[in-house]
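Section 3.1: Structural characterization of target chains.
Under the original work plan, the team committed to producing a structural model for every single-chain target entering the pipeline before any wet-lab resources were allocated. The record below documents one such target. The sequence was received from the expression subgroup and is listed exactly as submitted; it comprises 391 residues.
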Amino acid sequence: MATKKTKSKAKSAAKKAVKQSVRNAKKGKYGGIVAIVLVLILGIALFGGYQFGLFDGLFHREDEKTTSPVVVDTDELSVHFLELGNWYTGDCTYIKIGTVDILIDAGSRASSAQAITEYVNQYCTDGVLEYVIATHAHQDHIAGFVGTKEFPGIFEQFECETIIDFPRTDATSQVYRNYCEKRDAEVAKGAKHYTALECYENKNGAQRKYTLAEGVELEILYQKFYEEKTSDENNYSVCCMINQGNQHYLFTGDLEGDGEESLVQMNNLPHCTLFKAGHHGSRTSTTYALLDEITPEVVCVCCCAGSDEYTATNKNQFPTQEFCTRVSDYTDKVYVTSLSLDNEKKEFTSMNGNIVFSSKGDGYTVRCSANDTLLKDTEWFKENRVWGEPE
């Protein structure tokens, strides 16, 4: 459909063309009834073209952002790393295989519920999320589950059949309390709720592995902070893997170095075709201990590159230099969702945009809503980071 800007431009052009035709008719250039007919035909064609978006490409400007959904085959498994509608860094991953829909996290702010809902609705046609996973209790991972008064969150926008979240937390924030309230309301309506520990131990009706389609499963992994206390809330993160034949896709929330070491020790981790970068590409996650084990091929980073939301130190802004240095030993197929344009004004744009990884179990494709440029080839990277070990 036409955007408001392109519709306005097309409408204006149509009006001008019709007015010009009327002026020409009055001057006798067409002659009588023929002139009137021509004017009517021209008006209908132009206004119809405007209404149905036929002039969108014609009036498109380079500074206008377009967000056409990436088309995926119905028999493909697709993993979507979402932009969240604002400058703030956060996580939201949507996964679809056949008629099964999964959402892992819903950040970055409560207002992101609208961007997430509108995106997921392009692919989820029945309004049902079979599995929802909240990795840990930080705002940038759960606020979108709650939403706002103007736009309710994921728990109200969709029927959520199975909710899996963190076994431990030290959170006391209002965002966390709101999350629990909305989650429990969804449970009261019939949703099943399990912790990751219950899933791993196959307790209380929960399962360690859930079959999503023939040859495709969701596996809940174990790490020690499901049971042990930690001073870092990030280390409570739920970790899971999608197994599709011989291809494996790993999601670790914001798990930090200690948690990653435990994840490696407690699980027989395979080579991973896809890895969602730990903690938005921070310097304290995606450690060599984990990378050596999973040797990833594709790494996707959910962040607003260059944002000073957490630090003014350039090299430690997501994705950090240390992350780039470590991951460069394994792959150059690194993609990032968003880019900060102005930290003071909190303006952002797409880096890759919504990143869509898709596979039928043999090979894969990566397609992005904005562009498919690798992180190391972007202008931002060339100005702010070094590929490999800095001198």
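The two ends are 50 Å apart (CA to CA).
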